[in-house]
Amino acid sequence: VATHSDLKTVIDATTPTMKAYKLGVDDLEKVLDMQNATMDVGKVSYQDIQAAMGSIIPQAQHLKIPIEELYGAFAFFAEYGKDAGAAGQQMAMALRSITLHRPEWEKLVGSIYDSQGNFIGLETLIKKLEIRFSTMTPAAQDATVKMLELGRSRDIIQLAANNMDAFGKSIHDVAGASGD
């Protein structure tokens, strides 16, 4: 692992992801590659990853968000205007909003689950939101995100929807590092 982190920090940052996603030793290199890409894209450290993933992973698991998308979205939020701690907290809040306020989300963007009942994913959801936001004034966007009860996480949702290309690139850059 080519970082300036000690082994204990790397293990502490990696173990929660490995356990939560029920990954084995064979997947360790993939997770480390994604974490290194997350650090590169998001300008974060292993300590930042460890702190953020504790609150994000439970919400992401509920929605069955793939690890690559999870780390890529976190990298984007950390890179674009949020420190890693705030990015982690706000991302967890946004994921909780998706779960708790599904009818409001679906009223805004259409179905957020596919025909098999699987969440469509963050990238697809944000793309739908980008399309919807493209016809709205900033004031209408603000009113819309208030309806979703996003709290402080509304900033990162609007940021992603208004910068969809960069959001998608972050996800693909992190996924590409893992060989996916």
Characterization of this structure:
- With 180 residues, the chain is mostly helical.
- It has helices at 7-20, 28-42, 46-63, 67-79, 84-100, 102-109, 122-133, 138-147, 154-161, 164-177.
- Helix 3 (46-63) packs parallel to helix 5 (84-100) and helix 7 packs antiparallel against helix 10.
- The model has no long low-confidence stretch (mean pLDDT 89).
Summarize this entry quickly.
The model has no long low-confidence stretch (mean pLDDT 89). Helices cover 72% and strands 0% of the residues. With 180 residues, it is an all-alpha fold.
How much of the sequence is in beta strands? under 5%
Radius of gyration of CA atoms, rounded to a whole number: 16 Å
Taken in chain order, the helices and strands follow as HHHHHHHHHH
Rough outline: globular
Q: How far apart are the first and last residues' alpha carbons, in Å? A: 19 Å
> What percentage of residues falls in helices of 4 or more residues?
over 70%
Q: Specify the number of helices.
A: 10
Counting helices, strands and paired strands, the structural category is mainly alpha
Q: Low-confidence runs (pLDDT<50, min 5 residues)?
A: none
Strand elements, count: 0
User: How does the major sheet shape up?
Assistant: none
Average per-residue pLDDT, rounded, comes to 89
